[in-house]
Amino acid sequence: xxxxxxxxxxxxxxxxxxxxxxxxxxxxxxxxxxxxxxxxxxxxxxxxxxxxxxxxxxxxxxxxxxxxxxxxxxxxxxxxxxxxxxxxxxxxxxxxxxxxxxxxxxxxxxxxxxxxxxxxxxxxxxxxxxxxxxxxxxxxxxxxxxxxxxxxxxxxxxxxxxxxxxxxxxxxxxxxxxxxxxxxxxxxxxxxxxxxxxxxxxxxxxxxxxxxxxxxxxxxxxxxxxxxxxxxxxxxxxxxxxxxxxxxxxxxxxxxxxxxxxxxxxxxxxxxxxxxxxxxxxxxxxxxxxxxxxxxxxxxxxxxxxxxxxxxxxxxxxxxxxxxxxxxxxxxxxxxxxxxxxxxxxxxxxxxxxxxxxxxxxxxxxxxxxxxxxxxxxxxxxxxxxxxxxxxxxxxxxxxxxxxxxxxxxxxxxxxxxxxxxxxxxxxxxxxxxxxxxxxxxxxxxxxxxxxxxxxxxxxxxxxxxxxxxxxxxxxxxxxxxxxxxxxxxxxxxxxxxxxxxxxxxxxxxxxxxxxxxxxxxxxxxxxxxxxxxxxxxxxxxxxxxxxxxxxxxxxxxxxxxxxxxxxxxxxxxxxxxxxxxxxxxxxxxxxxxxxxxxxxxxxxxxxxxxxxxxxxxxxxxxxxxxxxxxxxxxxxxxxxxxxxxxxxxxxxxxxxxxxxxxxxxxxxxxxxxxxxxxxxxxxxxxxxxxxx
Length: 693
Description:
single chain; 6-stranded antiparallel beta sheet; Jelly Rolls; about 40% strand
């Protein structure tokens, strides 16, 4: 359900999603509580394949909002105002959701970053409110419609928390809060006596930047935690820390595990040994940690964010995996609410496995290139019919049955589409348990992509290892530092450490400095704009012209991040007029290759130029950009069997008859394009006599 769906249903302006939680009514019906920047919405999941937005409760607009449920109430907080909203869900089965009351504790809880809730004790806990030093604030829910202040832990700001009532073991009878306190680490706090909450221990760990959130596995006394800033600082992959907290006085770090993807982790929850992670740009990641918790098996994922993985604050915010059924919900900042069936991820895997053995690369020759995959059923499931190659066509998705090749291998020949078209495709199979499995998982989101062409004709290629006549500067340039330079990049937290094609001595264009300058990041773009313009490029010829390049862009650091963007322009008249190719405002902090069909933007000519403009016009952000591997090429579609002029799949007497009938004139049998059918065409026909292959 998109952000726009919520805006339409609630009738208020909504830009982003944030937190989510779940609620099960006394009747057993399940509901999603979806956090949005301007409201909390309630979604009926009785039929999870057809969720219904029932209503919602507005609140002051805030990128950060949080919700938890208890009894027949939901409790909502945000960082802009309005206090703690108490939402009545007692008539939700009738489609009625109402705001019961709001409390702000005399102005000390007008805003809160987060809210935690311990159903066992009947207390809610505010985190990061505007009062109480931003600490942990306990609310007594004895009267769920009228929470009252019970006490506060004010030693430090608390970003998030989970509160657990112990019933067995050495901590039996104690209520313990696992608090995530940013750069200080993890505070374990005894909150049994609300008038005397006290810290039991404080835990740090190597690489600590900002302890953000985590979840307790009571079965084994393990704590799984995430750090929201460590990937930004290190540039490394997502890292989940695991602690043994059998002794809350002296937790022991057991180790870490990673998805291997360079994205930021956000909220995670553990259930029955399964860890569910909402990891921003890589979406939902599911790990079976019932064995070695520091080396769990990733049993499933669903990427909710269509853009590339990167260390950026986009995509999946939170996940709720605690419904009785296997339904799991994921809230996404840009994408809204995703309702997923995680049954097979929980059970240890998918009902079917699809392994791609062969597929087209950058281009696909229609009628020639094949997609081959090994497709096998798993567990108690079986395949329900043949796998399909699903291709996006101008008239919509089209499915082509794959042909069995033996040994569970299936093949489909890429269909005939318009030459030069961009085609997305994936393999999908139905199973007897009623679930379709796709590769890539989650397709059509993240489907493979290719250009329809039987051959590529290179017109221009520049990896910048030599000077090909690029121009740095324009009359409008005024950057004080960070001017474009062809150099070997040095690399910082904001800038590349190598060119787009790794290897020693790799040069590219970067802003500010490389081996000959003061160091990227220390010499970033400041005080204005800097322009890089290509020489004139010839994009004419027989085929469909494309331009592609690798680019780097970073602008999320410094005093005023995200105020500028890199603009890429294209001209077909030697720079007299310019058309916008793209505006780069994503902070991918990675080399990203982009490809454009020129005819979609300008008419291809022999005077094409491309221009990259990086700027920092604002209040001091760190802007770093790079350009590498610029190519102009033609996509051409040559018939697989050009001598088959009769179109029957064979070169035979029927085709010979066409040549003889048109001998000496231009026509269908002019195989070499000379303008007349002659002996050369006859020789080409005889050379390919027989079935087309």
